[in-house]
Specification:
The protein is α+β, with helices and mostly antiparallel strands and 157 residues long. Helix content is 22%, strand content 40%. A hairpin with a 4-residue loop joins strand 3 and strand 4. The model has no long low-confidence stretch (mean pLDDT 86).
């Protein structure tokens, strides 16, 4: 009888531990960032990338930078307005990057060479990085676009 009681106590303890670990893993900030490349109404060419980041976690998150990864292994960050965007559970942030916006090109170290944007990610106030899903594909499509210089790429969102 005592053995069965001890075994039952161990099983209940393990189940409780499992539930606690599951709740602890869910109870954190988690960002789902996606992007899509959009066509211009007049030219029919890809003109900008639309980025949407949603806090799908249970804790607030403060995004500080939209970061770019460039050719030549360069990285550059663009500070989000007001020192960062605080996203509560379910809140989202939207951004657009036009084909001719400054983020598309980064002057490399020591001003030697201009580097082209290849990928995107967000960085929060704690230094955690959150990749933007499908960013590489979107950036590639935008670079290949024949959208003409001088035609507005997008309206600010």
């Amino acid at each position: 009888m005592e053995t069965a009681l001890s075994a039952s106590a161990i099983i209940i303890s393990l189940i409780s531990l499992g539930v606690s670990v599951f709740v602890a893993l869910r109870d954190r900030a988690k960002l789902n960032a996606t992007c899509e490349v959009r066509k211009h109404d007049e030219t029919g060419e890809y003109s900008h990338i639309y980025i949407k980041a949603v806090n799908v976690g249970r804790r607030p998150i403060t995004l500080s930078y939209l970061m770019g990864i460039y050719t030549e292994n360069e990285k550059a960050g663009y500070l989000l307005e007001n020192g960062g965007a605080k996203l509560e559970e379910g809140a989202f942030l939207e951004r657009c990057i036009g084909k001719f916006d400054g983020m598309m090109i980064h002057t490399g170290r020591f001003g030697e060479k201009d580097c082209e944007l290849e990928d995107l990610y967000f960085e929060d106030s704690a230094g955690n990085q959150y990749p933007v899903n499908e960013a590489k594909e979107c950036v590639t499509k935008l670079w290949k676009s024949k959208h003409p210089l001088g035609v507005r790429t997008h309206f600010n969102s």
